């Protein structure tokens, strides 16, 4: 009576899988020629109805042409999540300047930041600096049907906030953006947040690292934009970057509360 080895059968199956995978890779190379791999992340805001179940399309704009990414999978655009996906392009589109998203869906999408990393390049950051909502029916719903987010620069900024010790000064829903103004211009963050951590606790310091910003020189002013209805009070904010290691400090001498709710505080506050 013949005895079949399960180990031999398993090894044979593994070899077939590896051969099939190699053939698929070879077929892809023959079809695409000199293909260029682009890897993306898309961070969706963590508030309201930020995610979408509608169709969203992406185009990448470079100095040597554009890359049509096509339809982005809905599973990558969940509220409060960071989606990850990759696309092969048939040509090198050069330095990536902007990403453009569009939709015809009535479902709203609020992105915070998109990143792009070419196969042999460095990751670039594209922030939704004004918190614009993507929606295919802007006449009935707030937002735009097409949103373009562009690269600001390559500077890393380090922002440290000290939350006040005053009662109820803490928050986890302030959804704060910050604009930095210096001798060389302005640059704006996305939502400042440390994922997996409860920021802005009463009496505590929080440091946020924000890459992909424009180097604005010596910082003269900061401007805070609150998109959450919760309120927050800070003692001071320190900002520095790799080119200027000394921190610029801005104190809340007027004891202003920050909030998107006008009954609780200021939704926009500028310090110089």
Would you tell me the overall average pLDDT? 87
Q: What portion of the residues fall into strands of 2 or more residues? A: 35-45%
The profile of the biggest β sheet is: 5 strands, antiparallel
- Unreliable spans are 1-8
Helicity, as a percent range: under 10%
Termini separation (Å)? 90 Å
Number of strands: 17
Helical segment count: 1
Q: Secondary-structure element order, as H and E?
A: HEEEEEEEEEEEEEEEEE
Overall geometry: globular
From the alpha carbons, calculate the radius of gyration and give it in angstroms: 23 Å
Summing up helix and strand content along with how strands pair, one would put the structural category as mainly beta
In short:
The protein has 272 residues and is mostly beta strands. The chain has one helix at 6-32, and strands at residues 36-44, 56-62, 65-72, 82-89, 96-103, 111-118, 124-127, 146-150, 155-163, 176-182, 185-188, 205-213, 219-226, 232-241, 248-251, 257-258, 268-271.
Overall description:
By secondary structure, this protein is mainly β. The strands form 4 sheets. Strands 9, 12, 14, 15 and 16 form a 5-stranded antiparallel β-sheet that branches. 29% of the residues are buried.
